[in-house]
Amino acid sequence: TYRFESATSDKALPAGIATLLPSDSATYENGNSVSAKQPAQATYIDSVNDGTWTFKGYDAASAVVNKANVEFVGKWEFKANPTNAETYTPQVTEETIKVGQTPDLTDNVTNLPNLPAGTKVVDITPAGQIDTTKPGTYTGKVRVDYPDGSSTEVSVSVNVLPAPETQTYKVTYRFESATSDKALPAGIATLLPSDS
């Protein structure tokens, strides 16, 4: 006879695996050697647990009949399908801002179009970790949330650049005579515009 057991401690075999049990209708005499028959297939897709069961083998490849029925116990091992977080690796680019600006790290995942549809990026940088009042290099953090419920946290380098110095200039006006032998009368000077 044949019996299957789970080799994965926290998972019970799905009922569908029982349909793969080999049958042996032959009868054997005492002292006969019996070789274990392989199951109809060595893998079983488990959609309920989102993974695959793989037949790992029997407790013995063969046995000798010794005044009793022979039982082969086959072990199946479960492996969960990889999550999106295990399958994909977010690529990030550094953020560069000027003093006083607020960084937006949610658009720094450069390969977002290649990640599963519905993937979201959330800035989880702790408050105060990036000092936008002082130039320097800081580290922010984003969490990439995948549609299957898994997530990955990724560090993002943030460069805070000094604010550019603002140069100020004044505008002045002056009138000149375009006629070489004529000087401007004093009254024209009162027409000068002013820009304060």
Automatic annotation (TrEMBL):
InterPro entries xref list: Ig-like_fold, Rib, Rib_alpha_Esp_rpt, SHIRT
Domain of life: Bacteria
Ranges where the Rib domain occurs: 85-160
Protein name: Fibrillin
Residue ranges of domain SHIRT in the record: 1-79, 168-195
